[in-house]
Amino acid sequence: MRQLSRRDALALGVSGAALTFIGLDERASAAAKEAADQIAKFTGGKTATDGKISIVLPEIAENGNTVPLSVSVDAPMAADNYVSEILVVAEGNPNPGVATFHFSPMSARAEASTRIRLATTQNIIAVAKTSKGEFFTGQKLVKVTIGGCGG
Amino acid sequence: MAEKPRLKLPKEAKKGDVIEIKTLLAHIMESGQRKDKDGKTIPRKIINKFACEFNGKPVFAVDLEPAIAANPYMQFHAKVEESGTFKFTWTDDDGTVTTAEESITVS
Question: Concatenated DSSP letters for chain A?
Fold first, then answer.
């Protein structure tokens, strides 16, 4: 057998690495697609504008079983124009859905906090809907040390 | 019935105040993803709906998914214009409904 030149060996290494990446990407993109589908269902196909929404999550979650999450939208909560719903999805969980918060003008602030489970390092996406039919979106990356979705 | 839900909100407020409400219900929130030691999937059993009403009017509600951590905790706000009662309900996958009430005096 021909001895591998240094160049060949490097090329093999690179293509191998590329293959691994593709494999990972496909798995991640399946979940991401499901997340995107849920968002599309929520917005009814409308495009959500980036901004106004802020997601508070730890940069690194040591325990994926309980990660504090807080979402808020910088928008008025008047009787005729308020944030009616916020959808939260996790791109890398077995089921991307996390929660849908429903607000009313009596909520006074478009803001809610809870604790969530995260299987792995991933993006959390929030989409807010106003009573006027506008949509806002935002996302945040969380690094998860120990996943919280199974055993 | 399970343990009593934990509620935290002020007993008194001024008219028009925005108050913070915190609730917690002890619940396993079994995700339906875990397997027991024989490799069988443990069926899903979660609280799938939480709602808060004030004097019968909806204030805040959440549709919960298995990605909500055990012992679901919710923190939100409400604007109070009159004295009255907050009613909280948690709905389990099996149909069990847990309720709690707390009244507030608004001056």
Answer: -PPPPHHHHHHHHHHHHHHHHHHHHHHHHHHHHHHHHHHHHHHTTPPPEE-SEEEE--SEEEETTSEEEEEEE-S--BTTB-EEEEEEEETTSSS-EEEEEEE-GGG-SSEEEEEE--SSSEEEEEEEEETTS-EEEEEEEEEEEE--S--
Give the least confident one: A12-16, A122-126, B89-93.
A12-16
pLDDT in tens, A72-129: 999 989 999 999 999 999 999 999 999 999 999 999 999 999 999 999 999 999 999 9
Q: Mutation target for B interface from A41, A71, A101, A114: give the one with most B CBs within 10 A.
A: A114
Q: Find the closest chain B residue to A65 by CA distance.
A: B69
ipTM of this complex: 0.94
Instruction: Tell me what the pLDDT averaged over chain B comes to.
Output: 94
CB contacts, 8 Å: A99 with chain B: 62-65, 67-68
Which pLDDT score is estimated for B61?
97
Mean of the pLDDT values across residues A122-145?
94
Token pair of B96, please? 């069990």
CA distance B73 to B23: 6
Q: Which two tokens stand for residue B88?
A: 């909280």
Chain A residues within 8 A of B91 when measuring between CB atoms: none
CA distance B83 to B102: 11
pTM: 0.85
Bridge partners (DSSP) listed for residue A116: A67, B68
Taking CA atoms, A94 is separated from A90, A91, B33, B73, in Å, by: 9, 9, 8, 22
